[in-house]
Design goal:
Strand order of the largest sheet: 1-2
Strand content: under 5%
Number of domains: 1
Structural class: mainly alpha
Order of helices and strands: HHHHHHHHHHHHEEH
Number of strands: 2
Largest sheet: 2 strands, antiparallel
Amino acid sequence: MEHTLITFTLGAIVSFAIFMYVLLDGFDLGVGIMFPFIKNQHHRQTMVEAIVPVWDGNETWLVLGGATLYGAFPVVYSTILPTLYLPIIIMLAALVFRGISFEFMVNAKRSRGLWEFFLSFGSLIAGFCQGLVLGTFVRGFSKNGVLISSEHYHWFTPFSVATGLAVVCGYVLLGSTWMVRKTEGELQDSMYAKAKKAMVAVFVSMLIVSLWTPYVDPDIIKRWFTIPNFYILLPLPLLALAAFIVLYRSLQRRAEHVPFYASMCIFLFAYIGFAMSVWPYIIPHVTTIWEAAAPFKAQVFILCGLLVLVPVLCVYTAYSYYVFRGKVKPGEAHY
């Protein structure tokens, strides 16, 4: 009983860390993706200043989730990496290159445009690769316990490409609504327009992926459309639809804070829906969360550290956003 409870707690912490990373790093990836569509140099500088204080802290959640997954569920690494090694490595390389681009971009003069391009390209590739990984998980792995070899490109399919594009659109929505909160004037007007387009793209892509998913993984049909599961899970798509309505109305009346919170809710309901679709598998159709768990003593040791680390990280994240709250004006922030 204790082992089961600890395993569930560690799984919940991994899920929470991954969600926090997607939510927080998602908006600054979205800001980076939008760079080529902003021609005004002062506006691009403002965009940088809006994410510089928090972007590297956001990636701390990726480290926490990955390290916890490695320690608490080592089987996941040994079985999934052979299939997802290439997209994960490309994603990490893109994130590293994006960080390097930040450092060079803010100090370069003649080559600033080049580093801005690399910043945007790294953000785009990182977001797209995360979508490829997500699509592979939704699609699932072979049910006989043997994962499809990476040389068969199980991670690169029309469905995973669709989820990759959906994630990119979602990040642009988060990034544009974040910039609505942080800017004013002409740049804010531009972000309102981009947020409306991104909202439509996210709605359409989520609809396509949702309708496509049952054909990719028939087990999800049983999970969602059998009684009583249908009535239990029905609130999730309804809440997501409500979040879209709130987002649309808030953009129409030019609210500054509500669009970002509504976008976060869309991600939250989609994330919960994905979790409900694969539970209790941590490797879909292959290994449950309890089958992948590390030995009991190792889990206790990891959990003791996380009970200290996670609250500290939450407080640090909240405090950093509190300190750097408010509007960003060109020339007032320096990196």
